[in-house]
């Protein structure tokens, strides 16, 4: 159902051989499209490894590119004539910046600096800039939109969060709106690496091309951390085989780049992510062998799981994976059934022939920047793990630093957008902007979030939020 | 209130026709026999409102975003907009009088099935009919295809035997080997 404009064809060099690519692709996508699934070796045992997250969060796709070691190939755009090579174990030297590499240095000043250009960050930028704030939005990926760019299904929710539109359409609409605003700078390929507490400024570097970096010092009256989340792995023998990847990574390959990551995958995890990715795999012409989940009951919306059941994809509850096996890549998996206490049921093992194992077993909030800032953090399993304490206006325990989206709690893109609005308004107010109508607007957004979360589906989220929400702040 | 029965359904990952009857999502026979009606495979309280927002006559009743949709059968015109708008592809439109009135064959009915997989079935093509659990129901014929620019989900209008009209939930084009 999608049309792909892959751009001009170019050629890169991989381990001495030419590989065809398209200019809109990342290095990792181009390699995957050409049949490369082995991206490196483990340092100790020299086991082959494949990419896992495809969104710049893990380190499974590091390669040497144009001589530079440890390059994240999944967020590095291809360039004609690029030279890409495997790195082997400890042989790779540390990527210490040299004088030649750091070509520029910039000092920047904004009312609000936003880290992450996903649904939360973009929505925050729209609100804050609408109140007159000068806003910077940074993202480590070369393309803004966060994980909205791979969401091809129509969103649930209400008009306020663009229900009925597809995620990638929402990403385009939000970035188009921001582009028209003079008081907003969207800065892709930019990674925040430090925080100076005394002056409240951020250190970041922008990749302007391989070997061309700009070191940034960003002074901002308020900061919004909208860094999203990372897919979890699962412990089982063979979980490092090429072909085992996050379900979101498979989604990126299919929906952003038009590449089939497998022909007959097994999906582990029958929550919304697992069943939505299964549905999109069918749309991409992939035969999903099964979706399995150790729980008794699927956590997915019934409407989502119904969609794949009517197409004949089995959802096996109380099933999990024993191991994935294969020579150099996934060729099969053994699954088994568990009883009420999650103990294996004897004789229930089944071997299935699959060429991919996609993990949809949850996400972990990306809170590294908040840890750097020494924000108050608490372990709350209901929200996905370690998350920051926050007031109702999403201000953390560090004054002037706000959080929004999956970094605050693993939830939906709809709630990420609404949280982004709350944080955006609160951040602009912190910078001395806005008036009574903005207080009212923020209260409406908080009310919407409360109503959304009143669904029986979000009971655990409600319980989790109760543990991390502090008194005070606008509410 | 549905009890254990419901549990089992949720475990299997889909809604059965019996579930829908118990939840009041299937209209009375006299309504079914007299006009086109939407069948909502939507029995959970989830925050989602596009069907309500798409309805031009206010026939989809949902006081808050988490309420399950209820259809006011008297106000519904069978216009299909809710089926086009539903992000869950959970709504089919069942038109039983269509057989008698348009096809002049009272044993047939028309079912509109939301569809998002290529290739899109074409008018006149034979399709395999499946129920909610992918049980094969027989063959049908594509009467027409509604392409919605506003909502982006295609509706396949399929002629099916009247007695399975409420069960048809998925179609697949039959291609010669």
Fold blueprint:
The complex is a heterodimer of chains A (475) and B (177).
Chain A: E1 9-14, E2 17-22, H1 27-33, E3 40-41, E4 48-49, E5 62-65, E6 68-72, E7 83-85, E8 102-115, H2 119-130, E9 135-138, H3 167-179, E10 184-187, E11 190-196, E12 201-209, E13 212-225, E14 229-231, E15 244-246, H4 247-256, E16 265-268, H5 272-283, E17 290-293, H6 302-309, E18 315-317, E19 319-325, E20 332-337, E21 350-352, E22 356-359, E23 363-365, H7 368-372, E24 377-380, E25 385-388, E26 401-403, H8 413-430, H9 436-452, H10 459-468
Parallel strand pairs in A: 1-7, 8-9, 8-13, 9-10, 13-26, 15-22, 16-17, 16-22, 17-18
Antiparallel strand pairs in A: 1-2, 3-4, 5-6, 5-7, 11-12, 12-13, 14-23, 19-20, 20-21, 24-25
Helix pairs in contact in A: 2-3, 2-8, 4-5, 5-6, 8-9
Chain B: H1 4-12, H2 17-22, H3 29-34, E1 37-40, H4 50-54, E2 60-61, E3 70-71, H5 81-85, E4 91-95, H6 97-101, E5 108-115, E6 126-130, E7 136-146, E8 154-161, E9 170-173
Q: What do you see in this structure?
A:
The complex is a heterodimer of chains A (475) and B (177). Chain A is built from ten helices and 26 strands. With 475 residues, chain A is an alpha/beta fold. Chain A folds into three domains: 83 residues, Roll (Ubiquitin-like (UB roll)), CATH 3.10.20.440; 232 residues, FAD/NAD(P)-binding domain (3-Layer(bba) Sandwich); 129 residues, FAD/NAD(P)-binding domain (3-Layer(bba) Sandwich). In chain A, the strands form seven sheets. In chain A, strands 8, 9, 10, 11, 12, 13 and 26 form a seven-stranded mixed β-sheet that branches. In chain A, helix 2 runs parallel beside helix 3 and helix 4 packs parallel to helix 5. Chain B is an alpha+beta fold and 177 residues long. Chain B has one domain. In chain B, 20% of the residues lie in helices and 28% in strands. Chain B is built from six helices and nine strands, in the order H-H-H-E-H-E-E-H-E-H-E-E-E-E-E. In chain B, the strands form two sheets. Chain B has a seven-stranded antiparallel β-sheet. A two-stranded antiparallel sheet of chain B has the order 2-3. The longest helix of chain B has 9 residues. The N terminus of chain B is likely disordered. At the A-B interface, helix 5 and helix 6 of A face helix 1 and helix 4 of B.
């Amino acid at each position: 159902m999608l049309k792909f404009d892959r751009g001009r064809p170019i050629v890169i060099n991989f381990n001495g051989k030419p590989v065809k690519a398209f200019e809109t692709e990342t290095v990792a996508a181009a390699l995957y499209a050409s049949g490369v699934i082995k991206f490196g070796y483990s340092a100790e045992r020299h086991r082959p490894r494949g990419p896992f997250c495809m969104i710049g969060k893990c380190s499974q796709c590091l390669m040497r590119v144009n001589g530079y070691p440890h390059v994240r190939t999944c967020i590095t755009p291809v360039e004609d004539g690029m030279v890409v090579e495997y790195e082997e174990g400890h042989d790779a030297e540390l990527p210490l910046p040299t004088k030649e590499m750091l070509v520029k240095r910039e000092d920047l000043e904004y009312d609000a600096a936003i880290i992450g250009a996903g649904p939360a960050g973009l929505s925050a930028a729209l609100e804050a800039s609408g109140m007159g704030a000068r806003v910077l939005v940074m993202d480590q990926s070369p393309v803004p939109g966060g994980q909205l760019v791979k969401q091809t299904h129509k969103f649930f929710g209400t008009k306020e969060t663009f229900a009925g539109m597809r995620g990638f359409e929402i990403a385009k609409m939000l970035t188009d709106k921001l582009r028209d605003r003079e008081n907003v700078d969207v800065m892709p390929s930019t990674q925040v690496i430090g925080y100076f507490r005394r002056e409240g400024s951020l250190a970041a570097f922008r990749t302007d091309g391989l070997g061309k970096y700009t070191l940034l010092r960003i002074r901002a009256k308020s900061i919004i951390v909208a860094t999203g989340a990372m897919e979890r792995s699962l412990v089982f023998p063979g979980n490092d085989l090429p072909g085992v990847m996050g379900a979101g990574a498979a989604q990126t390959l299919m929906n952003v780049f038009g590449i089939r990551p497998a022909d007959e995958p097994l999906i582990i995890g029958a929550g919304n992510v697992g069943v939505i990715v299964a549905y999109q795999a069918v749309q991409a012409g992939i035969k999903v062998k099964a979706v399995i989940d150790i729980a008794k009951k699927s956590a997915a919306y019934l409407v989502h799981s119904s969609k794949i059941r009517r197409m004949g994809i089995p959802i096996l509850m109380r099933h999990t994976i024993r191991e994935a096996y294969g020579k150099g890549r996934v060729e099969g998996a053994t699954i088994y059934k568990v009883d009420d206490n999650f103990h294996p049921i004897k004789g229930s093992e089944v071997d299935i022939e699959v060429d991919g194992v996609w993990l949809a077993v949850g996400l972990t909030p990306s809170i590294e920047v908040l840890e750097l800032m020494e924000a108050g953090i608490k372990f709350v399993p209901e929200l996905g793990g370690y998350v920051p304490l926050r007031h109702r206006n999403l201000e953390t325990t560090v004054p002037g630093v706000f959080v929004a989206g999956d970094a605050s709690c693993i939830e939906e893109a709809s709630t990420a957008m609404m949280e982004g609005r709350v944080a955006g308004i609160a951040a602009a107010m912190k910078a001395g902007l806005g008036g009574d109508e903005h207080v009212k607007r923020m209260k409406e957004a908080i009310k919407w979030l409360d109503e959304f979360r009143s669904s029986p589906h979000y009971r655990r989220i409600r319980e989790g939020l109760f543990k991390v929400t502090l008194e005070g702040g606008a509410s | 209130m549905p009890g254990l029965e419901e549990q089992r359904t949720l475990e299997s990952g889909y809604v059965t026709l019996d579930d829908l009857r118990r939840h009041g999502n299937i209209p009375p026979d006299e309504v079914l026999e007299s006009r086109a009606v939407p069948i909502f495979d939507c029995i959970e309280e989830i925050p989602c409102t596009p069907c309500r927002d798409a309805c031009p006559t206010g026939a989809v009743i949902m006081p808050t975003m988490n309420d399950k949709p209820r259809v006011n059968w008297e106000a519904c015109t069978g216009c299909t907009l809710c089926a086009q708008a539903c992000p869950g592809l959970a709504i089919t439109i069942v038109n039983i009088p269509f057989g008698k009135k348009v096809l002049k064959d009272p044993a047939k009915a028309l079912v509109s099935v939301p569809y998002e997989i290529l290739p899109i079935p074409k008018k006149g093509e034979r399709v395999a009919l499946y129920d909610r659990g992918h049980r094969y129901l027989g063959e049908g014929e594509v009467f027409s295809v509604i392409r919605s620019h506003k909502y982006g989900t295609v509706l396949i209008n399929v002629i099916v035997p009247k007695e399975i009209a409420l069960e048809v939930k998925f179609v697949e084009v039959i291609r010669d080997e």
